[in-house]
């Protein structure tokens, strides 16, 4: 009789993520990818509304967006500041942009390594729609298009 020893596969450490050859983007990471993209869309959407409200600088988008997205938001925030300076009752204008929070978010993937998200962001007296397109560029997720309604 011959006996064969069974060899078990090495177990990953509990609670941690390990890079292994059997974990590919096409395999078990789709859920992780979706969670990551959803978190980015949520953060960027809320930041965009805060930029337009004047409580955050547009340069904070630079790490996660393309340069043209940052440039568009810098221009739009500057235009809104000019309007606010000319408005007599400026206090009521700033009340509109207080405490934005993400009320709802929907994310879909129209193509590989590309996601689109729609968000509803609630402010103190109104709600805004935000659309985000996120693509993988050079192994990093980048917001390539951002619209705030």
Summarize the structure.
The protein is an alpha+beta fold and 149 residues long. It has three helices and four strands; from the N terminus they run αααββββ. The longest helix is centred in the first third of the chain and has 24 residues, at 30-53.
Q: What report would you give on this structure?
A:
This protein has 149 residues and is of the alpha+beta class. Helices cover 34% and strands 27% of the residues. It has 3 helices and 4 strands. A hairpin with a 2-residue loop joins strand 3 (127-137) and strand 4. Helix 1 (30-53) runs parallel beside helix 2. The longest helix is centred in the first third of the chain and has 24 residues, at 30-53. Residues 12-28 have low confidence and may be disordered.
Major sheet characteristics:
4 strands, antiparallel
**In terms of per-residue confidence, which ranges show pLDDT below 50 for 5 or more consecutive residues?**
12-28
How much of the sequence is in beta strands? 25-35%
Portion of residues in helices?
Answer: 25-40%
**Mean pLDDT over the full residue set:** 79
What labels would you give this structure?
single chain, 149 residues, alpha+beta, four-stranded antiparallel beta sheet
Map the helices and strands:
Layout: H1 30-53, H2 67-86, H3 90-96, E1 101-111, E2 114-122, E3 127-137, E4 140-148
Antiparallel strand pairs: 1-2, 2-3, 3-4
Helix pairs in contact: 1-2
């Amino acid at each position: 009789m011959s006996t064969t020893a069974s060899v078990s596969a090495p177990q990953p450490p509990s609670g941690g993520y390990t890079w292994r050859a059997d974990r590919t983007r096409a395999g078990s990471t789709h859920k992780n990818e979706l969670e990551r993209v959803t978190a980015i869309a949520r953060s960027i959407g809320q930041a965009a509304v805060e930029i337009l409200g004047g409580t955050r600088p547009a340069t904070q988008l630079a790490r996660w967006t393309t340069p043209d997205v940052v440039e568009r938001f810098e221009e739009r925030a500057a235009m809104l500041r000019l309007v606010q300076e000319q408005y007599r009752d400026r206090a009521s204008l700033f009340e509109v942009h207080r405490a934005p929070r993400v009320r709802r978010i929907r994310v879909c993937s129209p193509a590989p390594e590309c996601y689109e998200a729609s968000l509803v962001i609630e402010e103190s007296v109104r709600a805004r729609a935000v659309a985000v397109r996120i693509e993988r560029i050079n192994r990093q997720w980048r917001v390539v298009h951002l619209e705030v309604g």
